[in-house]
Amino acid sequence: MPLYTDNHIKIYNSLTGEKETFTPISEGYVGMYVCGPTVYSNVHLGNVRTFMSFDVIFRYLKHLGYKVRYVRNITDAGHLENDADVGEDRIAKKARLEEIEPMEVVQRYTVDFHNILNKFNFLPPSIEPTATGHIIEQIEIIKVILEKGLAYEVNGSVYFDVLKYNETKPYGILSKRNLEDLMHNSRDLDGQSDKRNPQDFALWKKAEPLHIMRWPSPWSDGFPGWHLECTAMSTKYLGEQFDIHGGGMDLKFPHHECEIAQAEACNDKAPVNYWMHANMLIMNGKKMAKSTGNFILPTEIFSGDNPHITKAFTPSVARFFMLQAHYRSILDFTNNGLLASEKGFFRLMDAINALDEITPTITSTFNIEEWRQKCYEAMNDDFNTPTLIANLFEAVKIINQLKEGTATITEDDLALLKTTLHAFAYDVLGLVNVTSTESGTEKLSGAVELLIQLRQEARANKDFATSDKIRDELAAAGIQLNDGKEGTTFTTN
Ligand SMILES: [Zn+2]
């Protein structure tokens, strides 16, 4: 088991714009917070990519021996349609349109989120807190900020006073914006808001009469501002200062900027040592958007049921494809890219499986320790998964030469090669070992043949209810049974 002390990870810190050597606040422990999804629709593939980047970071830190507390929240209230504190609550709107309870919306899409992440073999975070479960903590933070004179109440709503805050602490340090430019570029409020200044943001909003999601507070029956939940939950579970805060690039401003301001206002210290941001996912070179049709749901990748792809891909192939880009690079999702990754993925899996058939000798023609070190160096360099994967393919080459007999390996080196490959492919990258022959039809046909046999037995026993049930359930799963003279065959659609 490798130890964290042997490894010096460098992390690109969005706050400083530099790669910095990672030094956790408490030796051996890492606190990491990642902004989770707002659960009002099926999880977007771009979000899956962001969470996957942090899943790999979580896995790698654990692999090095760190004790990691990974907090990823669920936003189930407070996120309005427009980031400037206007519009309907996203969850309440969906509930109104579908004539269901907001909590039904939350439940449906939280389940969807977990299902998709499970398919992609994500590790669950250590804590997954919800905004609605931390209303009291959020109210307490508002009280502190009001006491410090950095917020004001108007008509039952409370706003953070960005101008006042900026007098002593710079607002915009993360996104490299300065307040004067922001003010210059923003429109007047036209008297439509209670805010003193357009840059101010809501800590608490008084609920309109028809707004369902509301809680009592000292100021009004209302709901917390979107940025506040992350400050409340990260402080509660990770402390006033913690190691890593992550999220998608789009959250840098205003969300993360506001988180910094809130925490600084409360505790007079920077809440986060390393800010990390995952880049966007686009499709076929363009922004992914439902409205333009340039869009794919994660489930459609697994079923192949989308015009932008020519076949279904197993989740590990899609995962492998996404990790072939560094988390700070834009990832272009294309059918050709997936097809190429599929080939590479199966080459890697087949090579790992072939290790069991290799007979060691008394000498090695490779320096396995050096190769292993290169794998660690790749991940230590700001979690560079594409470089790591390139190193894994170096091992594939070695394994193929060993198979062909053009190279040799000692027993110890073979063991080291195997444990290292397993560690990086399965534990760190989170891939699942499926071989090209197992992944598709062969595995399926075995199961379907069994069901066809059971159906024949049922028919022989005149149990037509069972035989029809087998046929109908298979049809519902996209498998058609065709009864012919030669027996029953099946087709998939
Ligand atoms: Zn957040």
Automatic annotation (TrEMBL):
<dbReference type="Pfam" id="PF09190">
    <property type="entry name" value="DALR_2"/>
</dbReference>
<dbReference type="Pfam" id="PF23493">
    <property type="entry name" value="CysS_C"/>
</dbReference>
<feature type="binding site">
    <location>
        <position position="35"/>
    </location>
    <ligand>
        <name>Zn(2+)</name>
    </ligand>
</feature>
<keyword id="KW-0479">Metal-binding</keyword>
<dbReference type="InterPro" id="IPR032678">
    <property type="entry name" value="tRNA-synt_1_cat_dom"/>
</dbReference>
<dbReference type="InterPro" id="IPR014729">
    <property type="entry name" value="Rossmann-like_a/b/a_fold"/>
</dbReference>
<keyword id="KW-0648">Protein biosynthesis</keyword>
<dbReference type="InterPro" id="IPR015273">
    <property type="entry name" value="Cys-tRNA-synt_Ia_DALR"/>
</dbReference>
<keyword id="KW-0067">ATP-binding</keyword>
<dbReference type="InterPro" id="IPR024909">
    <property type="entry name" value="Cys-tRNA/MSH_ligase"/>
</dbReference>
<dbReference type="GO" id="GO:0005829">
    <property type="term" value="C:cytosol"/>
</dbReference>
<dbReference type="InterPro" id="IPR056411">
    <property type="entry name" value="CysS_C"/>
</dbReference>
<dbReference type="Pfam" id="PF01406">
    <property type="entry name" value="tRNA-synt_1e"/>
</dbReference>
<keyword id="KW-0436">Ligase</keyword>
<dbReference type="GO" id="GO:0005524">
    <property type="term" value="F:ATP binding"/>
</dbReference>
<feature type="short sequence motif" description="'HIGH' region">
    <location>
        <begin position="37"/>
        <end position="47"/>
    </location>
</feature>
<feature type="binding site">
    <location>
        <position position="259"/>
    </location>
    <ligand>
        <name>Zn(2+)</name>
    </ligand>
</feature>
<dbReference type="InterPro" id="IPR015803">
    <property type="entry name" value="Cys-tRNA-ligase"/>
</dbReference>
<feature type="domain" description="Cysteinyl-tRNA synthetase class Ia DALR">
    <location>
        <begin position="374"/>
        <end position="440"/>
    </location>
</feature>
<dbReference type="GO" id="GO:0008270">
    <property type="term" value="F:zinc ion binding"/>
</dbReference>
<dbReference type="GO" id="GO:0004817">
    <property type="term" value="F:cysteine-tRNA ligase activity"/>
</dbReference>
<dbReference type="GO" id="GO:0006423">
    <property type="term" value="P:cysteinyl-tRNA aminoacylation"/>
</dbReference>
<protein>
    <recommendedName>
        <fullName>Cysteine--tRNA ligase</fullName>
        <ecNumber>6.1.1.16</ecNumber>
    </recommendedName>
</protein>
<comment type="subunit">
    <text>Monomer.</text>
</comment>
<keyword id="KW-0862">Zinc</keyword>
<keyword id="KW-0963">Cytoplasm</keyword>
<keyword id="KW-0030">Aminoacyl-tRNA synthetase</keyword>
<feature type="binding site">
    <location>
        <position position="230"/>
    </location>
    <ligand>
        <name>Zn(2+)</name>
    </ligand>
</feature>
<keyword id="KW-0547">Nucleotide-binding</keyword>
<feature type="binding site">
    <location>
        <position position="255"/>
    </location>
    <ligand>
        <name>Zn(2+)</name>
    </ligand>
</feature>
<dbReference type="InterPro" id="IPR009080">
    <property type="entry name" value="tRNAsynth_Ia_anticodon-bd"/>
</dbReference>
<feature type="binding site">
    <location>
        <position position="290"/>
    </location>
    <ligand>
        <name>ATP</name>
    </ligand>
</feature>
<comment type="similarity">
    <text>Belongs to the class-I aminoacyl-tRNA synthetase family.</text>
</comment>
<feature type="short sequence motif" description="'KMSKS' region">
    <location>
        <begin position="287"/>
        <end position="291"/>
    </location>
</feature>
